[in-house]
Automatic annotation (TrEMBL):
It comes from Ornithinimicrobium avium. This is Peptidyl-tRNA hydrolase. TRNA binds at Y17, Y75, N77, N123. Monomer. One of its GO terms (biological process) is protein quality control for misfolded or incompletely synthesized proteins. InterPro entries: Pept_tRNA_hydro, Pept_tRNA_hydro_CS, Pept_tRNA_hydro_sf.
């Protein structure tokens, strides 16, 4: 049996964090689950909420590739344990691990993709890299922009998107979901060409 993809949306648990910039990865994951008519449930072996799905539609109208949609049930900075637990449980190869996360160094509203590289001060990514023993997983990076003035970046990502940005946030979440679907079906280069040229 071919191994599934693992798509992880990063965020902090609980209603207090739901609308935070730091939770935009989890927002994309919720959108993907809705699109697949799936409900995330507590996983029996990993500290995560997860659902097994088919992502999108393959050529000829067939169901898309198998995937596990997951959101760690832990706080962001200890996401690695749950991700490693899911990788081991489903025997997911590193090249099929996709982490969807917020990115300060990308303009608000833009989506960028890459494999590997540094963590840019993102504690969720750092935890995942440590737990997997590698940085060579795929990242779908959702631009939240830099904080204004001298605002502390940590305070900025742990604050909600302002109401005036609601439409932009919906577009960003939609684009993030589309990027994941393209990535698992068309590969990294084709998806980069589509999203990086915008």
């Amino acid at each position: 049996m071919d191994a599934p993809w693992l798509v992880v949306g990063l965020g902090n648990p609980g209603p207090r964090y739901e609308g935070n910039r730091h939770n935009v990865g989890a927002m994309v994951l919720a959108e993907l689950a809705r699109g697949a008519s799936a409900t995330l449930r507590q996983h029996k072996k990993a500290q995560a909420w997860a659902a097994e799905v088919r992502l999108g539609t393959a050529p000829g109208g067939l169901p898309g590739p198998r995937a596990v949609l997951a959101r760690p049930a832990t706080y962001m900075n200890v996401s690695g344990g749950p991700v490693a637990g899911l990788v081991n449980f489903y025997k997911v190869p590193l090249e099929q691990v996709v982490v969807v996360h917020d990115e300060l160094d990308i303009d608000f509203g833009a989506v960028r993709l890459k494999r590997g590289g540094g963590e840019g001060g993102h504690n969720g990514l750092r935890s995942i890299s440590q737990s997997l023993g590698s940085r060579d997983y795929l990242r779908v990076r959702l631009g939240v922009g830099r904080p204004p003035g001298r605002q502390d970046p940590a305070d900025y990502v742990l604050s909600d998107f302002p109401a005036r940005d609601r439409t932009e946030v919906e577009l960003l979440v939609g684009d993030g979901g589309d990027a994941v679907l393209d990535l698992v079906q068309l590969g990294l280069e084709a998806t980069q060409q589509r999203f990086h040229s915008r």
